[in-house]
Amino acid sequence: MATNKAKIAVLVSGGGTNLQALIDAEKSGIINSGEIVLVISNKADAYALKRAKKNGIETLVINNKAYSTRTEFEAKLIEAIDSRNIDIIVLAGFMCILTEDFTSHYPKRIINVHPSLIPSFCGDGFYGLRVHSAALDYGVKVTGATVHFVNEIPDGGEIIMQKAVEIKDGDTPEILQKRVMEQAEWIILPASVEKVANQIINK
Ligand code: GAR
Predict the structure, then answer these.
(1) What are phi and psi of 96, to 5 degrees?
(2) DSSP single-letter state for residue 132
(3) Known catalytic residue: 132?
């Protein structure tokens, strides 16, 4: 029995299907080296918070709009994370860009899932359905998802895992988003979290 699991905080803003994939992966043993102990949302009405509460996970709302500077907002996040001795921070649909003030505190400890094959359709302004619209507008035939470490460059940190997904005739951004989630994000995010957690506890 693993006694020392890595403590995981998941940062969310919306529906939280990736959070759900992580919760399910912990239950099924795909994630065995870490445990989700905290979910932070920048939005009070994020459905992801309900998913966390239903599973007995501590939740916090830290609203970016309640702070006049990004530094203050990030300081609040850091305080919440450090006071709970978090080892891994997972950005699962967290729609705030984090500056170097934040990312430099946690080198190789922040993981993000992005719904394209980086370096395509990524960086500033590419989030959520916009990513899938951009892929369809360009006309690529293959897209996918990427899980990567987070550094000060938006979507620019070291890649942990990627998975390709086919684009089909008639796809809309919504249809494509769902396929990318089902066939890529919900698989490689838990697998990546387990990989990183395992490395941390065996250090
Ligand atoms: C996911 O598709 C995730 O990859 C994307 O937002 C969605 C969140 O869904 N993230 C980004 O675009 C980050 N640049 P969820 O709340 O159901 O997990």
Answers:
(1) -120, 135
(2) H
(3) no
Nearest Cα residue to 122 out of 153, 101, 165: 153
Q: Which segments of the chain have a pLDDT < 50?
A: 1-2
Nearest CA to ligand 1 atom 1: 93
pTM above 0.90, yes or no: yes
Pocket test for ligand 1, best of 11, 13, 17 (most atoms within 8 A of CB): 17
Cβ atoms 149, 158 nearer than 8 A: yes
In terms of Cβ atoms closer than 10 Å to its own Cβ (0-12, 13-18, 19+), residue 159 is: middle
Cβ(121) – ligand 1 distance below 6 Å = no
Q: What is the pLDDT of residues 89-125, one digit of tens each?
A: 999 999 999 999 999 999 999 999 999 999 999 999 9
Cβ–ligand 1 distance for 18 under 6 Å, the answer yes
Tell me, using a 6 A CB cutoff, whether residue 144 lines ligand 1.
no
